[in-house]
Specification:
It contains three helices and no strands. The protein is an all-alpha fold and 63 residues long. The protein has one domain. The longest helix is centred in the last third of the chain and has 23 residues.
Length: 63
């Protein structure tokens, strides 16, 4: 079994890789939102970055 390269994790070429990347984005985004729940500005930043990341992933998938 070969060790995955960083490029394969950032830009997956298989459906399983994309599913894993999607799960990681939502997990990290959820943790960031829960962690910043007491500060409205930081929570908005966390939500915005999560939505931006998902939008870029969707744009790459559509393209």
């Amino acid at each position: 079994m070969r060790c995955p390269r960083v490029l394969d994790l950032l830009l997956p070429s298989t459906d399983a890789g994309v599913a894993f990347q999607f799960a990681v984005v939502f997990t990290v985004g959820s943790v960031a939102i829960v962690t910043t729940r007491s500060n409205r500005d930081l929570r908005l930043l966390a939500v915005g970055l999560t939505v931006l990341t998902v939008a870029l992933m969707t744009l790459r998938a559509v393209h």
